[in-house]
Amino acid sequence: MAIFELFSKRKKREANAGKPDVYQYDKLPEPFRVQVVHIWRSALGPYGTDRYGNFLPTNSIWKGIHDVMCRELGMFSLVESQSNPCDDCMQYVLHAPTENALDIIQLSFQTLNLLLRDDYETKRYRTQDVDDAIEELNLRFREHGVGYQFEGNRLIRIDSQFIHAEAVKPALGLLAEAGFEGAREEFTKAHEHYRHDRYKEAVAEALKAFESTMKSICDARKWPYKSSDTAKPLMDILFQNGLIPADLQPHFGTFRAAMEQGLPTLSNRTSRHGQGLDPKPIPQYFAAYALHTAASNIVFLVEAHKAMK
Question: Best exposed site among 93, 101, 115, 142 by fewest CB in 10 Å?
């Protein structure tokens, strides 16, 4: 679907040119919520009957989204003035608290992504294809300065569009390949924890994804390792087997030190050991560091693995 740059949008973009991309996470502007409804109408299709009085096949899509939300939230209906599942979902996303509005946005786009790509029964009633709808949603997030994107079949929180584009998104794409399923699941779990402010769990899952990536590479190349191996011994195996060419290894000394002492140390000091009597809260910026470091390391290792003969 074409996105039109209105005069007001262009002026705002020009005014922000050159400024760092700063996002907020606590509020979904009303125009953004309305734009989500517009995407839903074109990508999920209408609710009701056709000209012959037959129920539309798209009705089941809306009922499914509505019923899942009600079940998970422990409610009988999403709104007090009930109409039909479609209208109720739209009223809900327009007025629900931010966290719950994000819940239904994620669920609706998961439905699109997983169930409607090849659903020819409903295709004639939907005027926007799945990828275009996802692309528009992500554009609307950026347009309103809201720090979320739909990637890897879920909403993930982003702190910098540059880091997201250069590290997080490529990592998700590379881990989608066969053999990296475990690492991808852990990496997306890390982002889900991060979105819900569970920073300690986010750090733990980020490290798991980093370690699982190395184990997947070892499996693919039949390099033996112990199932209990953590980051340092796994890194030793990759270096010993020449994943990084020998003549380049001196140049990666600081890189290796950062990988061994950075993310693993952060996790060891926080998520993986007891806290004693004095709980140690994880600040948001620590969790962001863990996610971004894991993403960058995963991209590097998988690309090196793919390039290695």
Answer: 115
